[in-house]
Amino acid sequence: MINKILKKRILIPGRVSELTIYAPHIAEKARPGNFAVLRLSEKGERIPLTIADRDPENGTIVIVYLVLGKTSALLDTHVEGDVILDLCGPLGKPTEIKKQGEVVCVGGGTGIAAMHHIAKGNFEAGNEVTSVIGARSKDLLLFKPELEKISSRVLIATDDGTVGHKGFVTEVLQKYLQNNSSVSEVVAVGPVPMMKAVAKVTAPFDVRTMVSLNSIMVDGIGMCGACRVSVGGEIRFACVDGPEFDASRVDFDELMTRLCAFRDQEMLSMELFKKSEAS
Amino acid sequence: MTTKRKAKIKPRIGMPLLDPLKRARIFSEVSLGYRAEDAVLEAKRCLQCKKPTCRKGCPVEVDCKSFIRMVAEENFREAFRVIKDTNSLPAICGRVCPQENQCEGTCKLRPTGQPIAIGRLERFVADNFYARTSCEEETGFMECLLPDENLKVAAFGSGPSSLTLAGFLAARGVKVTIFEALHEPGGVLVYGIPEFRLPKSVVKREVDSLKHLGVDFKCNFVGGMSVTVDDLFADGYKAVFIGVGAGLPKFMKLDGENLVGVYSANEYLTRVNLMHAYRFPEYDTPVPKGDKVVVIGGGNVAMDAARTAYRLGASSVRVIYRRTKGEMPARREELEHALDEGIELEILASPLSFAGDANGKLQKVTLQRMELGLPDASGRRRPVPVDGQTFELETDMAVMAVGTGANKVLTQTTPKLKLNNRGYIEVDPATGETSMPMVFAGGDIVTGAATVVQAMGAGRLAAKEILGRLKKS
Ligand SMILES: Cc1cc2nc3c(=O)[nH]c(=O)nc-3n(C[C@H](O)[C@H](O)[C@H](O)COP(=O)(O)OP(=O)(O)OC[C@H]3O[C@@H](n4cnc5c(N)ncnc54)[C@H](O)[C@@H]3O)c2cc1C
Ligand SMILES: Cc1cc2nc3c(=O)[nH]c(=O)nc-3n(C[C@H](O)[C@H](O)[C@H](O)COP(=O)(O)OP(=O)(O)OC[C@H]3O[C@@H](n4cnc5c(N)ncnc54)[C@H](O)[C@@H]3O)c2cc1C
Ligand code: SF4
Ligand code: SF4
Ligand code: FES
Q1: Contact criterion met (CB < 8 Å) for B407 and A222
Q2: Which of B113, B130, B147 marks a domain boundary?
Q3: Interchain pair A29, B221: CB under 8 A
Q4: Does the N-terminal or the C-terminal CB of chain B have fewer CB atoms within 10 Å?
Q5: How far is A29 from chain B (nearest CA, A)?
Q6: In a domain, A228, yes or no
Q7: A258 to chain B: nearest residue by CA?
Q8: The ligand 5 atom nearest the CA atom of B248
């Protein structure tokens, strides 16, 4: 049945899980960089989630979500066999992937999952992939085994130093770029502060740097402008002009402000949800 | 018309309305519709002209004279059939057509200031006639052909153009599938026009009757992304109609336009209408709560946003328009209703910039005073800035209702479609066919933002052409 959850893999209990969903029309068309919009109930919100992988033969897509507020928490109550009410995709412009040599893919937190599809696309296009991933701690590193299969090397940073470099992915990235002048492109997906820092690190190296922006979305098909971001001083819609943009031109501070636009209401929703779950 | 005859013309029968004080803060429909006795009285005012001009003003050529006569004769069922002959969505058109520029604008009685209230009559007939079958609902006739599963036609988008096309073809035995990107069908009728003007139950009734006729609605399918034109032909569809609208909101490239607190009308209305955010937190989607609200623009969209903001509790709502009240493109009735409800106008003004606080939240707007200069291409006097005259308004929420552009999701992924320089799809005006054979288009994606009934006209034109070709082959 369409939109049925075939598999649920709990990656970090209560925080991050991966769902494999039967949606053949999306699986057939999805490319790295695409996302989907889902809605879970008649009273629910539409939220965008990146398509982290796809299997056109079996008609499935994979999404990985971080529990943040009401909708992601409600999604986390879903189990294998449940059906997602509305699932729309693929959306957004796919990553521009061409054969160009070495590509460094940087992922932070849940962003590693989204980055995985892009890394895989680059690998399949014949590029050499270097993955740089970071999280707070060793147990929070997602998709490491999957990335190891397609990357020439997987470099790791953790905040607490439980594995890899103790510190930020950007420090690892900087060092790598200093020692490897042959990198043709850097792609980064993760929290906005991380992407902003990546842009700063790559700027002196003159290497094309793309980031995937996660602005607030409503429709996801270019009709509301909620997702607008400033790129090179111009308004662009992340859902139809992006979500990937040239990092050197993105106004990250504006994006961070806009992501907080509904904080109070979001907290209220979450509180009410927790109460209703408890009772 | 002589002055003597003019003097004899009785005024239009008013339509009962909810009291402005009661309605200005709730989402119930404002206009209550004629009762049967009102309708008959109004219909009897019609001159039954030998050469009626009303019909020419209607983009889908409703035979106004005939249906009005039938209303006068209290033969409502027959009136319904006459309307349905050319108009598949009369309950909607009766409510939202800008009649003053269309049927009522060309009525012979127009010069008296008291044209026949054709829209109100049409709404009365559509609301009060209970079709016995969904076929009758669609066409006015009792029985339709069963759809032939091999005669498949697809439409992208489920706005009035596609709904009209689907109704026409389904009633004539064609299997129609509508692919809609959003989770609910109806297009602007559902995500844009608010409940207090067009109850969603009215739209639902139309969609349900199409379903009964065998039309399939596939929501959450994005044309060009989830399914392409080529996929459909490969799947055995004989023709494809593109009715994806002009939903891309425009901004003005002003400083501060991306502050928290500045929204496009589409975002604001979509949150409230499609996502039911006015019932947050019962519904999950949040909506900005504005207190001192400004709305930039002067059309229906601006009025809808302004009245919505007032209903959501704003203490003041000001519509900022660069020309004067007389030039506002909004439906007259809506403008009057808005003013009655307490919406204020700031005419001859245009925003220059927005400013916010340290947290990036909107605080004020700076406006440029305008005056009317010489007429422009549209024949309206062009607004020009008055040198040195700017002023500020305090505001915590601004809604931009300054127009929309072509929706590009489908067109940017369908390179074979010929577009004009503004991104709209080019069609043969006689058939609605695009540069791709057997691919048709209509509605706002061809004309740019227009009206419901014009979109319906385009759907009907393409449907007729498609039917003709399917019959031939
Ligand atoms: C293109 C894109 C791809 C994304 N991919 C992923 C992904 O693969 N995995 C993942 O965990 N998250 C992803 N996100 C973020 C995800 O959409 C939000 O975490 C989610 O909407 C939060 O909803 P909530 O109700 O759980 O939390 P809320 O409490 O509603 O919000 C928490 C925070 O999430 C953001 N947010 C809220 N509503 C939306 C919305 N409608 N659209 C976008 N952001 C919103 C805001 O910054 C908000 O402060 C993506 C976002 C975008 C735009
Ligand atoms: C707020 C507002 C108020 C208005 N008030 C009036 C009024 O009072 N009177 C009047 O006559 N007109 C009014 N209009 C204009 C009128 O609504 C439009 O002219 C009319 O709806 C256009 O119809 P359409 O068939 O072109 O499609 P639309 O109604 O624009 O619908 C297009 C549909 O296509 C879907 N879509 C987009 N891209 C894709 C894709 N790639 N694949 C699948 N589906 C897709 C959209 O989600 C949407 O549902 C108003 C418009 C707005 C926004
Ligand atoms: S469809 Fe609109 S323009 Fe035509 S007669 Fe009806 S109300 Fe008038
Ligand atoms: S033009 Fe006016 S008065 Fe004449 S038939 Fe039409 S509606 Fe009646
Ligand atoms: S999410 Fe509405 S325009 Fe991008």
Answers
A1: yes
A2: B130
A3: no
A4: C
A5: 6
A6: yes
A7: B260
A8: 3
Q: Is the ipTM of this complex over 0.85?
A: yes
Domain count for chain B, please give it: 3
Please give the model's pTM, rounded to 2 decimal places.
Answer: 0.94
Distance, in angstroms, between A131 CA and closest chain B CA? 29
Contact check, Cβ <8 Å, B227/A25: yes
* Chain B residues within an 8 Å CB radius of A223: 191, 247-249, 266, 270, 407
**Full residue range of the structural domain in which residue A231 is found:** 102-259
| pLDDT at site B5 | 54
Question: Using an 8 Å Cβ cutoff, are B403 and B266 in contact?
Answer: no
Report which of B167, B86, B191, B102 is spatially closest to residue B451, judged by C-alpha positions: B102
CA distance linking residue A230 with residue B157, whole number of Å: 29
Same domain, A118 and A184: yes
Alpha carbon of residue B415 to chain centroid = 29
Q: What DSSP line would sit under chain A, residue for residue? A: -TTEEEEEEEEETTTEEEEEEE-HHHHHH--TT-EEEEE-STTPPPEEEEEEEEETTTTEEEEEEE--SHHHHHHHT--TT-B-SEEEEEESPPP-----SEEEEEEETTHHHHHHHHHHHHHHTT-EEEEEEEESSGGG--SHHHHHHH-SEEEEEETT-SSSEES-HHHHHHHHHHH-TTEEEEEEES-HHHHHHHHHHHGGGT-EEEEE-----SSSSSSS-TTEEEETTEEEETTTT-SEEEGGGB-HHHHHHHHTTTHHHHHHHHHHHHHHHH-
My answer on whether B300 and B358 are in the same domain is yes
Q: Which CATH number belongs to the domain containing residue B354 in this structure?
A: 3.50.50.60
Residues 6+ apart with CB under 8 A from A204: none
- Nearest CA distance, B249 vs chain A (angstrom): 6
Residue range(s) defining the domain that contains residue B295? 249-404
One-letter identity of residue B96: V
Interval B144-203: pLDDT, tens:
777 888 899 999 999 999 999 999 999 889 999 999 999 999 999 999 999 999 999 999
Ligand 5 close to Cβ of residue A225 (< 6 A): yes
